[in-house]
């Protein structure tokens, strides 16, 4: 697969996974809400921040404390949620417990979606590759 096509595919999957994750978080957590008019902006903002911040957090964890490397994705999710809520107007989270739960829920749902979405979206492409 061409590297540019792969990059676009990964980007589409990340956007869709984060869209689902933020929506699920807003549905299951009473103190987390998404503004309908700002939902797309919140998803785009969250995804861009996560893509930019996660490698920085991972690299920092590798240098200072390799034991924390596994939690770098959770920290990146929390930072992305905070910045998305501050910068945009589409996401609102209140209460410490909700911030913690939102981080875990969004991280888990996005992880699951990133694993399942390629199988659903690119099923034909994957089957064509396997048949070649």
Task: List SSEs in N-to-C order.
Answer: HEHHEHH
Q: How many separate domains?
A: 1
Q: Report Rg.
A: 16 Å
Averaged pLDDT, please?
Answer: 88
Tag the structure with descriptive keywords.
single chain; 132 residues; mainly alpha; two-stranded antiparallel ribbon
Describe the protein.
- This protein has 132 residues and is mostly helical.
- The protein has one domain.
- It contains 5 helices and 2 strands, in the order H-E-H-H-E-H-H.
- The chain has helices at residues 3-28, 39-64, 72-87, 96-121, 123-131, and strands spanning 32-34, 91-93.
- It has a two-stranded antiparallel sheet.
- The two termini are 12 Å apart.
- The mean pLDDT is 88.
Quick gist of this model?
The protein is mainly α and about 130 residues long. It is built from 5 helices and 2 strands; from the N terminus they run αβααβαα.
Secondary structure elements and their pairing?
Blueprint: H1 3-28, E1 32-34, H2 39-64, H3 72-87, E2 91-93, H4 96-121, H5 123-131
Antiparallel strand pairs: 1-2
Helix pairs in contact: 1-2, 1-4, 2-3, 3-4
């Amino acid at each position: 697969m061409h590297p540019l096509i792969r990059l676009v595919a990964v980007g589409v999957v990340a956007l869709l996974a984060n869209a689902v994750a933020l929506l699920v978080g807003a549905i299951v957590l009473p103190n987390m809400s998404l503004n309908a008019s700002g939902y797309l902006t919140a998803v785009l903002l969250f995804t861009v921040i996560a893509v930019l911040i996660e490698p920085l957090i991972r690299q920092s964890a590798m240098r200072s404390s390799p034991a924390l490397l596994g939690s770098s994705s959770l920290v990146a999710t929390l930072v992305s949620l905070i910045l998305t809520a501050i910068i945009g107007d589409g996401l609102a989270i209140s209460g410490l417990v909700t911030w913690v739960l939102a981080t875990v829920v969004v991280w888990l749902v996005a992880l699951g979606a990133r694993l399942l979405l390629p199988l659903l979206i690119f099923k034909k492409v994957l089957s064509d590759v396997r048949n070649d």
